[in-house]
Design a protein that fits this description.
Layout (H helix, E strand, L loop, with lengths): L2 E7 L6 H9 L6 E7 L6 H6 L7 E4 L5 H11 L4 E4 L4 E3 L4 H12 L3 E10 L2 E9 L21 E3 H7 L10 H12 L4 E12 L8 H17 L8 H7 L2 H6 L2
Parallel strand pairs: 1-2, 1-4, 2-3, 6-9
Antiparallel strand pairs: 4-8, 5-9, 6-7, 6-8
Helix pairs in contact: 6-7, 7-8
Length: 250
């Protein structure tokens, strides 16, 4: 199955090369690599130019935020499966895409996800937080659970049928999308119980306190928008559900 991997970036010269190399190192060969740059001015484009012949589709222009850039990437993607690898992230090993494709074929599912590790920005061997997920079952979202979005792979026709990222959500459009796909529409999914992606701390995708509060407010809004009944306590359950991840990372 052809797999489209989308990388969005903006002024990411410090980290983008690790992301690119981790994709090009995958032992699964049927990969379409899409890069959407927001108009970088810091040397990101010079780094990407070194790999231009290995990038299937490329765009560099201003955007309206990361979810707008992701939607642009989806408009370019022609693979059977789509995943995102952003500029602060890299695959845990060279077998990740192959494992995703195999799991989706064997289990005949629409979505697949795994576990995530947060590592120190300048010490990639030091794990700060380990996000261990689990197979989806009804009731998990109500407990504050959701899959780690960087590990979330979806069949392209799911986006075509049920929509892309909703741009009214500036921080939690990924949560809304996974809630929509898994909870509202009940799409079949599977979980790979292994770390698939490592993410640097301190990057643009890591939220400060205000953004965490805003993100949880947006998550509550996502329930109402999708006609789902979510408890007001969800705003508390979601951040508390992550506390054990820090303990696991020690």
């Amino acid at each position: 199955m052809k797999t489209s991997i989308i990388t969005i970036c903006f002024n990411s010269a410090e980290t983008i090369e690790d992301s690119v190399r981790s994709i090009l190192a995958q032992d699964y060969r049927d990969i379409e690599y899409v890069v959407i740059d927001g108009g970088s001015t810091d040397g990101t484009l010079d780094i990407l130019a070194k790999y231009r012949s290995q990038i299937s589709k490329f765009m560099s222009e201003p955007d309206d935020g990361m979810y707008d850039a992701m939607n642009k990437g989806l408009s370019f993607a022609t693979g059977d499966i789509v995943g995102f690898l952003n500029a602060d992230d890299f695959y845990a090993n060279e077998k990740v895409i192959g494992r995703i494709v195999e799991a989706m074929q064997v289990n005949n599912v629409d979505c697949c996800y795994g576990d995530l590790e947060y590592v120190r920005r300048h010490n990639l061997g030091k794990t700060v937080r380990r996000w261990k997920s689990q197979p989806y079952r009804d009731g998990l979202f109500e407990r504050g659970w959701h899959p780690p979005h960087p590990t979330f792979f979806v069949k392209k026709d799911v986006f075509d049928k049920y929509g892309c990222f909703d741009l009214q959500y500036t921080i939690s459009a990924d949560y809304e999308l996974m809630l929509r796909f898994l909870k509202k529409y009940g799409l079949k999914s599977c979980h790979i119980p292994d770390v698939l992606i490592k993410m640097r701390t301190g990057g643009k995708s890591n939220k400060n306190l205000w953004e965490i509060i805003k993100a949880n407010i947006e998550c509550h809004k996502a329930w109402n928008q999708n006609g789902l009944k979510g408890s007001p306590l969800l705003i508390l359950r979601k951040p508390f559900s992550k506390l054990t991840q820090y303990m696991q990372g020690k």
